[in-house]
């Protein structure tokens, strides 16, 4: 297939482009800076700065400002909405202009869709929350669903914390490397995560599955509490886990964004598993072992 990726220069997008190319698909990546993108993309991926002239059979929409890059304020929140829902709406409008629309759109979302839900087990049937990140994800997904009216098969993936070399894990491991790691707040908040290899495989599985559509939780089958995650991360790095960070300190450090760190969701990939998808890294121990080396799995 000819596949267009938005957000293709990011942590997930680069790995996805590499896998699609390895399977023989043609990949274009929409970017605002073609020379810079070309220097980071795998060989064979084509960086483009405009949609004109493209006629992909599939679109993977991963565009979006990083929620954790800076403290939140009104301007940052507008940027989050514009870069997610706004970009997705623009994609759908572009599709309307094509002689033949793409067969499938796999559009990113996040487990923040569900909001802070304590110990409640959440499948794709669960209702959205009533918080900023929930409303952000709901509007993002609603924008993608507009493509259905054009005859496009739409899959909405609610992504958890993505583990791999780099990405969120690079920031998480830093205090542990200095022996200062620990859980955040009570440590009882759930962290729904997925290994990057499994996420890439899931996206490709959705692209190629002609009967697959709707919402899919892109999370591993075994979520962990923040306390469990901290212990597993410390063990994988052979470092002690002795310094929990009180909730107040987290709030002072990152402001409103602390809500994401101190609350969570216990999300299960019910639909993917029911429809036959198999996770290579279903548990935290195997995932961290792959990232940090086999010694992590024996820790």
Topology (SSEs and partners):
Elements: E1 2-6, H1 11-22, E2 26-30, H2 34-40, E3 46-48, E4 58-61, H3 74-96, E5 104-110, E6 121-122, H4 132-145, E7 153-159, E8 161-163, H5 167-177, E9 190-191, E10 193-195, H6 196-208, E11 214-218, E12 224-225, H7 226-237, H8 247-254, H9 258-262, E13 266-267, H10 270-274, H11 284-292, H12 294-298
Parallel strand pairs: 1-2, 1-4, 2-3, 4-5, 5-7, 6-13, 7-11, 8-10
Antiparallel strand pairs: 9-12
Describe the structure.
This protein has helices at residues 11-22, 34-40, 74-96, 132-145, 167-177, 196-208, 226-237, 247-254, 258-262, 270-274, 284-292, 294-298; strands at 2-6, 26-30, 46-48, 58-61, 104-110, 121-122, 153-159, 161-163, 190-191, 193-195, 214-218, 224-225, 266-267. The protein is of the alpha/beta class and 299 residues long. Helix 3 links the parallel strand 4 (58-61) and strand 5 (104-110). Helix 1 crosses helix 6, helix 3 (74-96) packs parallel to helix 4 (132-145) and helix 7 (226-237) runs parallel beside helix 11 (284-292). The longest helix has 23 residues, at 74-96. The radius of gyration is 19 Å and the shape is globular. It starts with a strand and ends with a helix.
Rg is: 19 Å
Under the CATH scheme, the architecture is: 3-Layer(aba) Sandwich
H/E series, N to C? Answer: EHEHEEHEEHEEHEEHEEHHHEHHH
Determine the CATH topology. Rossmann fold
Number of E-type strands: 13
Low-confidence stretches: 294-299
Q: What characteristic shape results from the CA principal axes?
A: globular
| Biggest sheet descriptor | 7 strands, parallel
């Amino acid at each position: 297939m000819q596949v267009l990726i938005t957000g293709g220069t990011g942590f997930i997008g680069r790995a996805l482009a590499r896998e699609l190319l390895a399977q023989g698909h043609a990949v274009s990546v929409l970017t605002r800076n073609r020379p810079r993108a070309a220097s980071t993309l795998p060989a064979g991926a084509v960086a483009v700065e405009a949609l004109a002239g493209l006629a992909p059979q599939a679109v993977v929409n991963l565009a979006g400002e990083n929620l954790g890059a800076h403290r939140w304020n009104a301007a940052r929140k507008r940027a989050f909405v514009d870069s997610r829902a706004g970009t997705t709406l623009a994609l759908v409008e572009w599709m309307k202009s094509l002689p033949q629309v793409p067969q499938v759109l796999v559009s990113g979302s996040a487990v923040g869709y569900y909001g802070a839900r304590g110990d409640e087990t959440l499948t794709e049937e669960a209702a959205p929350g009533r918080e900023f990140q929930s409303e952000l994800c709901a509007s993002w997904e609603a924008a993608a669903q507009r493509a259905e009216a054009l005859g496009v098969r739409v899959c909405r993936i609610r992504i958890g914390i993505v583990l791999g070399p780099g990405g969120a894990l690079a920031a998480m491991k830093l205090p542990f490397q200095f022996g200062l790691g620990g859980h955040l707040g009570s440590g009882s908040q759930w962290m729904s995560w997925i290994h990057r290899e499994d996420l890439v495989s899931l996206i490709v599985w959705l692209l190629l599955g002609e009967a697959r559509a709707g919402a899919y939780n892109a999370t591993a089958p075994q979520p962990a509490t923040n306390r469990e995650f901290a212990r597993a991360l410390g063990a994988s790095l052979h470092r002690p886990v002795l310094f929990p960070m009180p909730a107040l300190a987290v709030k002072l450090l990152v402001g409103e964004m602390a809500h994401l760190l101190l609350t969570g969701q216990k999300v299960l990939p019910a639909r993917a598993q029911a429809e036959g998808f198999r996770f290579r890294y279903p548990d935290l121990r195997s995932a961290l072992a792959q990232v940090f080396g086999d010694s992590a799995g024996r820790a």
